[in-house]
Design brief:
The protein is of the alpha/beta class and 259 residues long. The protein is built from ten helices and five strands. It has a five-stranded mixed beta sheet with strand order 3-2-1-4-5, with helices on both faces. Strand 2 and strand 3 form a beta hairpin. The longest helix has 19 residues.
Length: 259
């Protein structure tokens, strides 16, 4: 098709369509929402973040703008190392299967995950509140022992000061089944609960947190010092508690959900 030079420049100088102008404005907000989520939000959380800012847009449109800007959410599958079990695992049943959780400090979940520094394993123990998904206690150590999980429990106690009767749930790892850890729970009047045999999903709440930490917080990072790893873990926990939108609690951050 023949087009004159003057006609081409006249076309280029025409104002952008209303839809294109709206897309450009919305794209800027999509970038801001993606950045607010530490560059890990996909279109559902970006849409919710925009909604909380008073901006309405359909998910398909947001997904299209994100594709155009090469913005991606972060998701992946992780290999999970499980702790060795005690032979007498039947001694502690799962006591929270039918428990209705109506507020904070009724059920806590604890677990330990593996992280690397200079090619050597470090062990992170974390405790979350089931009601709000808030991380309430944590500890990092070179060895996976009851000292690690007791330190995380004491941290959670200082942060929350819960009443007696709280249910503490974990897997059947030896660091939770130890006599020392059980004694600490009894000292504070807590009720211990553990996964049923071969039911790893009984502790899915905290497995979900570890997945988010590794995919959203520590993705492709390497560490040559314990302090650098610790700083990143603390940074992510603060983001997770105060800002991250959780679909399971109405796309609210845990701290806001508890208010």
């Amino acid at each position: 098709m023949d087009v004159s030079r003057s006609g081409f420049y006249a076309w280029r100088q025409r104002p952008a369509s209303v839809r294109l102008q709206l897309d450009q404005s919305l794209s800027e907000l999509v970038h801001k929402a993606h950045a607010a989520g530490r560059q890990v939000y996909g279109s559902p959380r970006v849409q919710e973040q925009l909604r909380q800012w008073g901006v309405r847009a359909c998910r398909h449109r947001i997904a299209r703008l994100m594709r155009n800007a090469r913005l991606q959410g972060r998701s992946n599958h992780l290999f999970v190392r499980k702790a060795p079990f005690l032979k007498f695992f039947h001694q502690v049943p799962n006591r929270i299967l039918d428990l209705q959780v109506t507020g904070p400090n009724q059920v806590w979940h604890g677990d330990v995950t593996y992280l690397k520094v200079n090619g050597a394993w470090r062990y992170l123990a974390v405790i979350i509140d089931r009601f709000s998904r808030r991380v309430v206690g944590w500890s990092l150590a070179h060895h996976r022992t009851s000292k690690l999980t007791i330190a995380a429990l004491q941290h959670a106690m200082r942060n929350r000061k819960p009443a007696k009767g709280l249910h503490f749930h974990s897997d059947r790892g030896i660091e939770f089944s130890s006599l020392e850890f059980k004694a600490k729970l009894r000292q504070h009047g807590f009720v211990q609960s553990m996964n049923r045999a071969s039911h790893i999903n009984d502790n899915a709440y905290i497995e979900s947190f570890f997945h988010s930490l590794k995919i959203e917080g520590l993705f492709k990072m390497t560490f040559d010092q314990d302090q650098k790893l610790w700083d990143e873990v603390i940074s992510y926990i603060q983001f997770y508690n105060q800002h991250r939108l959780h679909s399971s609690i109405g796309y609210m951050p845990p701290a806001a959900f508890e208010l």
